[in-house]
From TrEMBL:
This is NB-ARC domain-containing protein. GO terms for molecular function: ADP binding. Pfam families: TPR_12. SUPFAM superfamilies: P-loop containing nucleoside triphosphate hydrolases (SSF52540), TPR-like (SSF48452). It comes from the Bacteria. InterPro entries: P-loop_NTPase, TPR-like_helical_dom_sf, TPR_rpt. Gene3D superfamilies: P-loop containing nucleotide triphosphate hydrolases, Tetratricopeptide repeat domain.
Amino acid sequence: MGDDRNRADNDFSGRSAAVVQAGLIQGDVHLRTVTETPLPSPRQLPPATKGFIDREVHIQQLDSLLDEVELITDKARLPVVTISTISGSAGVGKTALAVHWAHRVRERFPDGDLYINLRGYDAVPPLTPHEALDGFLRAMDVPAEKVPRDLHDRTALYRSLTTGRRMLILLDNAATAEQVRPLLPAAPSCMVLITSRSRLSGLAVRDGAIRAVLDVLSHQDATRLLRVTIGAERVDRQPEAAARLIALCSHLPLALRIVADRARLDEERPLGELVEELAAEESRLDALAVEDDDLSAVRTVFSWSYQALRAETARMFRLVGLHPGADIALDAAARLAGCAPSVARRHLESLVGLHLLTRSGPHRFRLHDLLRLYAMERATLDESPEAVHAARERLLRWYLHHTYAAYRAILPQGRPLPGVDVPPDATLDDALRWCEHERLNLLDVVRAAPGWGHHRLGWQIALASMAFFERRSYWKAWIDSHLAGLDCARHLSDRQAEGWLMLSLGDAWWDRGDLDEAGRCYAGSLEAARDVADAWTTGYALRGCGLVEEDRGDFAEATRYAREALLTFRQSGEERGTGLALMSLGNALRGAGRYAEALASYDDAMTVFERLRNRWSQGLVALHRGQTLLHAGEPAPALAAVTSAAALFRELGDRRHAALARSYEGDAQLRLHQPHAAREALADALLTLLELDDPLAADVRRRLAALDHDTTTPDQQEEQDG
């Protein structure tokens, strides 16, 4: 056995900051107790945004998720971390929302909060997960020399340290799911909040992330933001200017805050001056720049997203910006870029994922106004003038192709557009559906064409769209598109196109009940057509002049115009025009009280349209025939005629003429002593005409009121119908 004096016992009890275990000690020994105070829980949230405007729906969603986190922790179940992603376009306020909410609830995370800007779309390269974990581990009191070098080891240590803690982790400006995934803790007591311009779909699929997409501010919230940042009294004193500022900033929080900062520099400056500065579209992005902080400029913020795109996707983004309309179809984007729709779809989906585009419907996409301006700017900088010109021409030809296909489906016997390839036959339903989707864009395209140097395509698209605008009673678009097309034709000194466009304008004004404008257009069309010996337009312009005279009550002059138009059409072999002139002749004869002659003229017109299989015109003849029979005192056959016309117009998608036929059903039923059916028919017709903003609604309302008050006799009704 050894000497007991040399034995060291290993027993220890109590608490000590430092313990020395030794055997035999010789010489001087100096012991100093060092007390190490652990670092406080990390609190890394950046300052909250001043004047934050609550996003109530998203705040409530995050609150609910937090309640779930605490429930999971308390019941020790579902050992998965709760993840919420907030995505949206640049400047929409993702970080502001995340930081604002995090400050509201940070006391419910007693073990701290971690924050990092992952720089996913910054001007500098994104942070790697390896770099991000280095910062997190140091914040959690891991000495620098103890931070593992390997990413896998860093992730393991990070998850070990967060286990058993209740922490909030805010990962700001993430680029991809791969960048984020190593930063996710494993503890269900932790909550992760991620902001990104990307939807980060992988996190939702693999990691169960709850996604929220942040949109621009509502008008009410945008106004509240301006009141908080500029001053309530100043905004309330200039409500129209404030509303215009909101619109020019596209309700984007970042843009609104930049404008507010500028407004605060000069408290006496009227908000209207800022409106004028922003209203110049070509300089709007310049006006939204901040001189002493380039990173907050809208252009710079957008550029971060743009620079992160692959080359072909970036090209799709800037070319989509060339589209002048409210949204763009997948096929139109493909035509702009000169690629297959399947290729275009991949690029568009990428842009949607990064919130540089949003969906506006099936296979349709929309650019935020400010993003559209930025995309146009990039097209100017990154595309050659020749490439921009070619892309715009491809787009216009795509519109011409489809509008002309619709024109041929709606007006099978319509005049062919000169020099335009005949498109494949389209069904009427498909044609109307396409036109309805593109209705808001057609006028924008026609207006844009001359500025792009494509005047001929401009007037051709305008004329081709006429058939749809007429069928669906979109008079304003019809008139505005033709006025723009007329400018294109006159720029080219194309008198034939000018005459044709003025003829169509006359039809639109006549449908609207403006006889003076219609008469001027028909007369101008007739003059232009005779200048170039255009028999087709001459015949239709003559017929148009007759329509005006008929509505003015000069049935003799209307008859003269109808007969001259009929002669012109027969000499030129224009069959559809012949049928229409015969119908117009019948209308003039009816107005003159020559009912038998009128019915005979309608019969001749019906024969022409049946031979042409022109069902819409057949419906129109049946409608006029029914009116004539009603005037002639034959309500039963009149009812049969107008009922068949109404059914045909409904089938063809012409709500206006279906409503007019329905109104005459009411008149015929009244003559047949069926007041309840008459009232129902007139009310039905009135509802449709009011929806269409049709001037004939006033006449139908008067007839319905007379019926309700029983003040109109059948003879008086007949005089009013005449």
